[in-house]
Write a structure and sequence with these properties.
Helix content of chain B: 40-55%
Order of helices and strands of chain B: EHEHEHEEHEHEHHEHHHHHEHEEHH
Largest sheet of chain B: 8 strands, mixed
Largest sheet of chain A: 9 strands, mixed
Radius of gyration of chain B: 25 Å
Mean pLDDT of chain A: 92
Order of helices and strands of chain A: EEEHHEHEHEHEEHEHEEHHEHHH
Number of helices of chain B: 15
Oligomer: heterodimer
Distance between the termini of chain B: 53 Å
Number of strands of chain A: 12
Structural class of chain B: alpha/beta
Helix content of chain A: 40-55%
Radius of gyration of chain A: 21 Å
Number of helices of chain A: 12
Strand order of the largest sheet of chain B: 3-2-1-4-7-6-8-5
Shape of chain A: globular
Largest interface: A-B, 43 and 44 residues
Mean pLDDT of chain B: 88
Low-confidence stretches of chain A: none
Low-confidence stretches of chain B: 1-5, 414-425
Number of strands of chain B: 11
Strand content of chain B: 15-25%
Chain lengths: 398, 425
């Protein structure tokens, strides 16, 4: 049975929760005065969750963060913001390709964001139909740009070029932001060494088995603690744990400092993913900071069918090793060898073995194998993708 | 007191960097501050390049005074400039700083808001982008880290926050504390900062007083700088013994075995040390090529320590002299007890007001009957202000504070309470 998604604030906890007859359990996002502080899975019995169980579970899930947040509000250090600095403004960039239904939901939610003077830019990456353009035109205040070069990273680069504000916040077309999302992201840019901020991504729904497995297997969320990453506490080759493309914002200057996104990587190319991680890794290597801030929350619609899930995980496998291949070839990042081998033996081979031997806590074998297949193909996919790209460039020049 | 805007004198010491100086002067011509209300004094500190000709040739829209002296270092040059200055405010700027248009205006505004304080400007380093260079990355992060810290509300300033490249103060105040100490070749700014802190002068960081710092630094120069810092720290310890415990030379016996090597080499066999550093210097280049950050950091740290100790050894002679030197200072002052006590039950704002009035060096904090903690006096740090309180409570005393609040019944434990309508009223 599917899992219900609940969004509860500790300051306004309902006495009990009813009406969940379709669900066997619930995933609860716990907030305190609007700020996410934890999450918990709770069983749903006869369509309801009793008040005492709910309270205990959410308080347990929040743990010490609850008190941190309480004290923070009690001491109100918000009143003490630096006086001589102003918050930057942002361009929200949504890169999309032939997904008008999902995009429509995303745009609705973007309209509900607090107004921070943001610009909203939709980059249409070679959609086959005209639907995306018509959809964007129906919203005022939104700008439509069509990028003819296929590939998510080409679209991201276009967004960086087109943006009129200092910060570019990227959002997937199958995600929707929390109203406070942008404000929370921007808040972290007051440190001049922070060039990227990533946020917490929760599942929008867990209705199918595929979605449940995605959330268990490779969730986007990176916990509820704000972390500042730099090359001292995170190797550039392990940049994946800093965050993902579904919820990240960059200074537009990033292009001048470390270069654009590598257009041989990510969706729309043979490498299928990894373009976001690769940029994060280059930032870390150049000594900049990346902040993971769970206050910047958005919700992602995971793939519904098993086939799509397998495809996605295969793509993650390809993208990860393609990124490592690039880091090794282009950036001369030798630590990749260590990261890649330890990931392969400690995580993947062990996972496959656990699935074959039917150990408890195992993952579905076909998913493990799909990802493994991707890993073998990844490095070659990167080389192929570069080849294709240079051929396209050659054609353009002729 | 001056009623109109005071005349600012910008003092720029320079030594054989005419190209950089030209950029600095060009940037000053583009200030939003009225140019007729400022004067610029360039002190040529024994320049042998075309600096002086450049200055005579240049046609600046502001009053420019050119002062020449034999090479005596930046401290002497700045003092000389201050001597010839006529402005009520002195702004010290280095010759490698490209001022943003608002720099002088921001300094002037900060002094107008509250006269009598030292205003420290923001110097974001300009780093060549593209190529990865660990040294430049490290320096940039050090500078930006310092400024970011100073920008935080409730930051408690220390003597070493006075960074000499971009700061201003009243010329009268500068004369009163006696200007820069000429015996310092480096860290002369920290030493002045210490005397200003002792004189009870407030520091203020103005982020809008921004000047882009075109620092030309390479590994050899960074080692030379460490050598000078070693020498300067000995002087600093002699001049201000209360700072001794804070200086790196105060712990001649580091905890690890490897950490002992640099100081031992520097004191006992500098010749071997010199040969070794030459070899390791090449190893650094390899580590940088192979992108081995952690090892590079450790190795460079070791080399810096060696050069630092060479500087210390130059001034003190032997390890035994060094250890007896450390005995001279009041190594650990007996804790004199906190000056005042505040009770947070009176309210945070009331507590902050008490701190602002009394400006104590240290304070005991309690909430009714519960002791929360104390903020100790720090040598070289400014006396406490009200604005320091909340950040200190949040950073270091959060748990103790929560316990005290719970014991006094301010927090109602939500786990014990079975209310349906929420956790707090």
């Amino acid at each position: 049975m599917p899992t219900a998604i609940l969004d509860l604030d500790l300051s306004r906890l309902p006495p009990e929760i009813t009406g969940l007859h379709r669900y066997s359990r619930a995933l609860i996002l716990v907030r305190l005065w609007g700020r996410p502080v934890g999450s918990a899975y709770l069983p749903v019995i006869n369509g309801s969750i009793a008040g005492t169980e709910l309270r205990e579970a959410v308080i347990h899930a929040a743990g010490w963060r609850l008190w941190d947040r309480w004290l923070e509000v009690y001491l109100r250090p918000e009143n003490l913001r630096p006086t001589h600095s102003t918050h930057p403004t942002a361009t929200i960039a949504v890169c999309t390709r032939d997904r008008p239904a999902e995009l429509s939901r995303c745009l609705e939610a973007l309209n509900r964001l607090f107004d921070e003077g943001q610009e909203i830019l939709i980059v249409d990456n070679c959609s086959k139909t005209d639907e995306t353009r018509c959809l964007v035109k129906s919203h005022d205040r939104m700008r439509y740009v069509r990028e003819g070069k296929p590939g998510l990273n080409a679209a991201r680069n276009r967004a960086l070029r087109e943006a009129r504000q200092d910060i570019v916040a990227f959002m997937d077309d199958d995600a929707i932001p929390d109203p406070d999302w942008l404000r929370a992201l921007l808040h972290n840019f007051d440190d001049p060494l922070v060039f990227c901020v990533t946020g917490l991504t929760m599942p929008l729904e867990l209705e199918t088995e595929a979605q449940e497995w995605f959330e268990r297997y490779s969730p986007f969320g990176r916990g509820f603690q704000r972390v500042i990453y730099d090359s001292g506490n995170c190797r550039p080759s392990s940049a994946g744990r800093v965050g993902a493309g579904v919820n990240m914002a960059f200074r537009r200057e990033v292009v001048d400092r470390v270069g654009p996104f590598d257009e041989a990587l990510d969706a729309g190319t043979p490498t299928r993913s990894g373009g976001d991680t690769e940029m994060l890794s280059r930032l870390l290597a150049a000594g900049y900071r990346i902040v993971y801030d769970p206050a910047a929350l958005n919700w992602h619609l995971h793939r519904r069918t098993w086939k799509e899930l397998r495809h996605t995980l295969y793509g993650y496998g390809v993208g990860l090793y393609a990124f490592w291949m690039r880091a090794l070839l282009v950036e001369r990042e030798w630590s990749v060898l260590k990261a890649a081998s330890s990931w392969f033996f400690r995580y993947q081979m062990r996972g496959v073995l656990a699935s074959v031997l039917k150990r408890p806590g195992r993952r579905p074998l076909d998913l493990m194998l799909a990802e493994l297949r991707g890993c073998f193909w990844g490095p070659w996919a990167y080389l192929l993708s570069r080849r294709l790209r240079s051929r396209v460039r050659a054609c353009d020049e002729q | 007191m001056m009623s109109s805007k005071p005349l600012i004198s910008v003092v720029i010491p320079t030594h054989n960097r005419s190209a950089l100086l030209e950029r600095t002067l060009t940037a000053l011509a583009g200030q939003t501050f009225p140019l007729q209300d400022m004067e610029v004094l360039v002190v040529s500190d024994g320049c042998t390049d075309e600096t002086v000709e450049l200055l005579h040739r240049s046609n600046t829209p502001f009053s420019l005074k050119i002062i020449q002296q034999a090479h005596q270092g930046p401290a002497a040059a700045r003092n000389r400039g201050a001597m010839h200055a006529t402005g009520g405010l002195l702004l010290f700027l280095d010759d490698d700083i490209e001022a943003s248009p608002s720099l002088i205006d921001a300094h002037a505004r900060a002094h107008n808001e509250r006269p009598g304080r030292v205003v420290i400007g923001y110097l974001p380093p300009v780093v060549p982008s593209g190529r990865i260079d660990f040294l430049h990355i490290g320096l940039r992060n050090w500078w930006e880290g310092r400024f970011y810290e100073m920008r935080q509300p409730g930051y408690r300033f220390r003597y070493s926050d006075l960074l000499g490249g971009n700061f201003s103060l009243g010329s009268e105040l500068f004369a009163r504390v006696g200007g820069f100490d000429l015996s310092f070749r480096t860290h002369e700014d920290y030493e002045l900062g210490m005397r200003l802190i002792k004189a009870g002068v407030d520091f203020f960081f103005a982020v809008d007083a921004r000047g882009y710092h075109h620092e030309a630094m390479d590994l050899n120069r960074s080692f030379a700088r460490k050598y000078e810092e070693g020498q300067a720290d000995v002087l600093m310890g002699r001049r201000h013994p209360e700072l001794l415990s804070l200086l790196p030379l105060a712990c001649p016996k580091p905890y690890s075995f490897l950490g002992v090597i640099p100081s031992a080499l520097a004191f006992k066999c500098p010749a071997a040390g010199l040969a070794m550093t030459a070899v390791l210097r090449q190893a650094l280049a390899f580590l940088q090529w192979a992108r081995m950050r952690a090892l590079w950091d450790r190795l460079r740290g070791g080399l810096c320590a060696y050069w630092y100790w060479r500087g210390v050894a130059e001034k003190l002679g032997s390890l035994s002299a060094a250890s007896s030197f450390l005995q001279t200072g009041p190594a650990r002052l007996p804790e004199e007890g906190c000056e005042i006590e505040i009770d947070l039950r009176e309210g945070l704002e009331a507590s902050e007001r008490i701190l602002d009035q009394k400006r104590p060096k240290s304070v005991h904090i309690r909430f009714a009957q519960q002791f929360i903690g104390s903020i100790d006096s720090q040598p070289g740090a400014e006396p406490l202000r009200g604005v320091h309180l909340r950040p200190i409570l949040l950073a270091g005393l959060a748990k103790r504070m929560l316990i005290a609040l719970a014991m006094e019944g301010v927090l109602d434990n939500p786990i014990l309470r079975n209310r349906g309508d929420g956790l707090w009223r």
